[in-house]
Amino acid sequence: MFSIGDKVFYGAHGVCIIDDIQELTFSGQRKNYYILHSYHDVSIKLYHPVEAKDSKLSPITTKEAAQVILETFKNPPDVWHSRMNERTQHYQKVIESKNHIQIAQMINTIIRKKLELEKEDKTLPSQDLQMLEQVTSLFSEELALSFNLTAKQVMDKVEKIILAN
User: Fold this and answer.
1) What is the C-alpha to C-alpha distance for residues 24 and 45, in angstroms, rounded to an integer?
2) pTM above threshold 0.90
3) 86 in the same domain as 50
4) How high is the pLDDT of residue 17?
5) For residue 120, what is the domain's CATH number?
6) Which three-class secondary structure state does DSSP give residue 149?
7) Domain residues for 50?
8) How many CA atoms lie within 13 Å of 9's alpha carbon, on the beta-carbon side?
9) 89 with 160, same domain?
């Protein structure tokens, strides 16, 4: 169970802060809910049942775990699926896994492909670029909290690791 003031990772919403825990009624059912707001935008208010079987809330990654995640960027890229729909399905499975290492490896693969294409004066397909931007912003925000850095500083570290390997 989380407490008021805790920073949590909330799926597609990224990092959120728990403002309150209240008993509320939604769809005719009375339950305890976390009331959260987005770390980026305090105007975004979210509700999540305290006792959810498939909770989308997870604690922020520890600094030690974040360091292990960063090591992922030393790995070579995964196989690049030539068909966009295969890549999209793969991306969705990785995101749904909530596995930070798998998400980091997916980001690693996309960034390395982007760099490879740039060397050939080509660009990454827009769908891949959108996925990279979406996932990277959530990923870097969480690691930034773990390391007490900014999201930009985290991505600078990632880029440095990739370029060195």
Assistant:
1) 14
2) no
3) no
4) 95
5) 1.20.58.1290
6) coil
7) 7-59
8) 20
9) yes
CA 161/CA 154 separation, integer angstroms: 11
Q: Which of 20, 12, 49, 35 is nearest to 141 (CA)?
A: 12
Q: What is the dihedral of CA 88, 134, 35, 66, to 10 degrees?
A: 100
Looking at residue 75, what DSSP letter applies? Answer: S
Helices 84-97 and 100-119, axial angle in degrees (round to 10): 150
Task: Look up tokens 């390395």; give the residue.
Answer: 112
The two three-digit tokens of residue 151, written as one number? 């999201």
Q: Do 68 and 145 belong to one domain?
A: yes
pLDDT in tens, the chain (165 residues): 899 999 999 877 889 999 999 999 999 999 999 999 998 888 999 999 999 888 889 999 999 999 999 999 999 999 999 999 999 999 999 988 888 999 999 999 999 999 999 999 999 999 999 999 999 988 999 999 999 999 999 999 999 999 999
| Integer Cα distance of 61 and 9 in angstroms | 9
Contact, 63 vs 146, CB < 8 A?
yes
Q: Verify that 18 and 67 share a domain, yes or no.
A: no
Q: Which of 26, 73, 68, 15 is nearest to 50 (CA)?
A: 26
Q: Are residues 84 and 142 in the same domain?
A: yes
